[in-house]
Amino acid sequence: MPLSVVDLYKKILPKTNCGDCGYPTCLAFAGMVVSEKLPLKKCPYIELAVLSKAQAELDKQHADGKWTKKDMAADALAWAKERAASMDINDLPERIGGVLREDNAGVYLELPYFSDSIIIRTEKIQKKDGTDLNRWEQVFVYNHMAQGGFAIPTGNWKGLEAIPNTISKMKSMKAHVEAPLLERFTGRPDKLKRAATAIGARDHSETFPTADVAAYLLPLPRIPIMLLFWDADPADGFDAEIKLLFDETIVEHLDVESIMFLSERIRQLLRGDKM
Length: 275
Known about the structure:
The protein is an alpha+beta fold.
């Protein structure tokens, strides 16, 4: 009988959210096993007989293409490329930043991306080492290109709740971004500072002096994000709190789904989670 994400979570996995598989929750791990063909044995707490039987069923449904996300990623990338196809690469620096360069393959845009850069050509997006950027990240960048904004960030910050049409995303932000970050970094503000610095963040504690961590992130040149963290204070009865703030111009450059993707990508990078 085919195993859905929920079936795998309820019937096979330990539901302890221990993180030993490399994912923050058993449900997240189940999603990767079912949709991305991650080996079930990455969970070290499944009895061998149960593991063998479940993996055999998963192999069968993967072969049939059932519930796999591979085609979803391919379809999303094809759609995003089509959406951005009308963009003239020569116009991109003015809109999204970066520098135009040229090599034997033609003109390309070198665009800063977190602490590194990516190479944007008409037909693909690659890392500087020549390997392809993850397909979902390519979808994100193509959507940014196609959004059409010209706005320069103003430095006026707002939370997700202040961005239009995000009410339905608040629960997801708390569950998939804020909660995992709090779980990892509560009581460890210095560890969060180091993780943020590793992905290119700059300290902005002078701007937000009450926060234990104020990290200015620049995932892309027109998309600054402020990460604020207040550590728990048991003596005064305060729980830890974390929040992402967005420049007021972000809607010129990203749609709501892309904002959520970027938020979750930041969480992955800070925690060292797999994508």
